[in-house]
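User: I'm writing a tutorial on reading structure tokens. Could you give me a worked example: one chain, its sequence, then its tokens, then a sentence or two explaining what the tokens reveal?
Assistant: Sure. Here is the example chain.
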Amino acid sequence: MTALDLKLIRKTADRAASEGRSSAYSLDRMTALQLAKRTVIFTVDAAGIAALIDAARQDIPGLTSNHMFQTVANHNPDTFWAIAKRDRFNVASPKGEGFLAVLPLTHEGTRRLIDGRLDTRNPELCYIARQSERPAGIYV
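And here are its predicted structure tokens:
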């Protein structure tokens, strides 16, 4: 399942238009194949996570602390992926332009998410599946 926040996409497109940048390849107009051909997804270190989160705070108010993102990524590296445009990506110095953060949840973590007891801004690591575990649910 994929969920896109259309308000955020439109806000970003409006900002790009006001800055004179083209939105010809806007996410809301691209197919999954077009998107896959133009992007690179990779993991980043703690400094990379901090840089991406700090940049995202302008558009996404209420994000949890950089430390929490890094703690969760240390517990399971598959919880935070950086995303970059393929034509701007440099493998020698990888820098993300965006990110995807998820919480792969254990059975108890999924139960707590459903009934509202899971603090998604400050989750206890015991409710997050490790990299080698199969999650019971995924919070995006």
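What the tokens reveal: The mean pLDDT is 87. Residues 46 and 70 are 6 Å apart (CA to CA).
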